[in-house]
Design brief:
The chain is 57% helix and 0% strand. The chain contains 14 helices and no strands. Helix 1 packs parallel to helix 2, helix 2 packs across helix 10 and helix 5 runs parallel beside helix 11. The N and C termini lie far apart (83 Å). 44% of the residues are buried. The chain binds fe (ii) ion (2 copies). One fe (ii) ion (FE2) binds next to helix 8, helix 11 and helix 12. This is Iron-containing redox enzyme family protein. InterPro entries: Haem_Oase-like_multi-hlx (IPR016084), PqqC-like (IPR039068). It comes from Streptomyces lavendulocolor. Keywords: Oxidoreductase.
Length: 371
């Protein structure tokens, strides 16, 4: 008796694709918490984000590097990156938001152009970055030599608006490049985004670092404490990245990040080791020491080199992107060090005691302070 081949069974019907339910009207939209306003511009952006009408605002009278404009610009960019609490995803392309953003971008860009020298010599613009000063006195030098957990936590909070979305602003550059420059930029980005492994995404490694230091790694958690000088270093990436006309400056900005990363990462790893930090804290920096030594070369030779071979007319923009990035970084370092020299917090206020206690307990693992 021959066995009867089993009859093919009717395939179970594929489950209907599930369309996520729209949140019921009036229910809070999830996302990063919105910060408090810092003046009329940030109040206007917050109002539009929440769905209100844009009030008339005077950008011309605002300090382009001040707290109000820099927070307003940061918030105007955020819907491109992450969900914000109470903000509809559609707000990303709301003409009212874009109309508020444009004059602020122009004011910021003008301030940057006024702050740094003109010129199209990219090699000269890069030169100061390639030499490590023997008597360095930046923030990472200070932390390595005499950093306490308190200062380390402040540093991590300053870095969090960028590092928790590390390399996202630079990803805008991908469609704006071609050939070798595009291929090489994506090779660098592949590492930044974890080389195919979610747990190795650099933003995730930074979140692990924050948690190991007893901080809350939730996106946007500390935004109220982050001053304008820090926000400007992030806003410049979004400004350059989101405008194709500024692609040269975006490439210059990315090159600075990669070139300055390895020595700084080495110092930060030593600073954390000196404090007895957990391995997951140090890993973020050790990962960058090796990876960015390669990235630096790739960015200079293959990304900037190939971009300028194709579009030599972008040299002045590339040099501007490099100089503006360095200028903003140095300005940030000066403000942080001045605050620490005076014994003040470099943030807009002190970290909550809960964060401090958690750091001392979790980071050292034995309840002793790590200072
Ligand atoms: Fe990275
Ligand atoms: Fe890198």
């Amino acid at each position: 008796m021959t066995e009867t081949a089993p009859r093919p069974q009717a395939r179970p019907a594929a489950p209907a694709a599930r369309v996520p339910d729209a949140p019921p009207q009036g229910a809070p939209l999830p996302g990063a918490p919105l910060p408090r306003e810092r003046g009329p511009l940030s109040a206007a952006v917050l109002r539009v984000l929440r769905g209100g009408a844009a009030p008339a605002v005077d950008v011309a009278g605002a300090d382009p590097l001040g707290e109000d404009l820099q927070l307003a610009l940061y918030l105007a960019y955020e819907p491109h990156y992450r969900a914000l609490e109470g903000v509809a995803d559609e707000r990303e392309w709301d003409p009212a938001l874009l109309a508020l953003r444009r004059p602020m971008e122009q004011a910021f860009l003008e301030a940057l152009r006024a702050a740094v020298p003109d010129g199209d010599d990219v090699t000269a613009a890069l030169e100061p970055l390639l030499v490590e000063p023997v008597d360095g006195h930046g923030v990472s030098h200070r932390l390595m030599r005499e950093g306490t957990w308190e200062l380390m936590r402040e540093y991590l909070v300053h870095r969090s608006p960028y590092q928790l979305k590390e390399s996202d602003p630079q990803a805008w550059l991908i469609p704006r490049l071609e050939g070798q420059a595009k291929a090489s930029l994506v090779a660098v980005a592949y590492d930044e985004f974890g080389g195919g492994r979610g747990e190795r995404v650099h933003a995730r490694l930074f979140a692990d670092l924050m948690e190991g230091a007893g901080l809350d790694s939730s996106y946007g958690r500390y935004l109220d404490l982050v001053p304008a000088a820090t926000l400007a270093t992030v806003n410049v990436m979004s400004l350059f990245g989101l405008h194709r006309s500024l692609r040269g400056a975006a490439a210059g900005n990315f090159a600075v990040i990669e070139i300055t990363s390895p020595p700084g990462a080495r110092r930060m790893a030593r600073a954390l080791e000196r404090l007895g930090a957990q391995e997951r804290c140090v890993r973020f920096f050790t990962e960058h020491i090796e990876a960015d030594a390669v990235h630096e070369q790739v960015m200079r030779r293959d990304v900037l080199g190939d971009l300028l071979d194709r579009e030599p007319g972008l040299a002045a923009d590339v040099a501007f992107g490099i100089r503006a990035t360095v200028w903003l970084d140095e300005r940030w370092e000066e403000q942080v060090l001045a605050a620490w020299d005076d014994g003040r917090p470099s943030l807009r206020g002190p970290l909550a005691p809960a964060d401090r206690d958690a750091t001392d307990r979790d980071a050292t693992g034995d309840g002793a302070t790590g200072d």
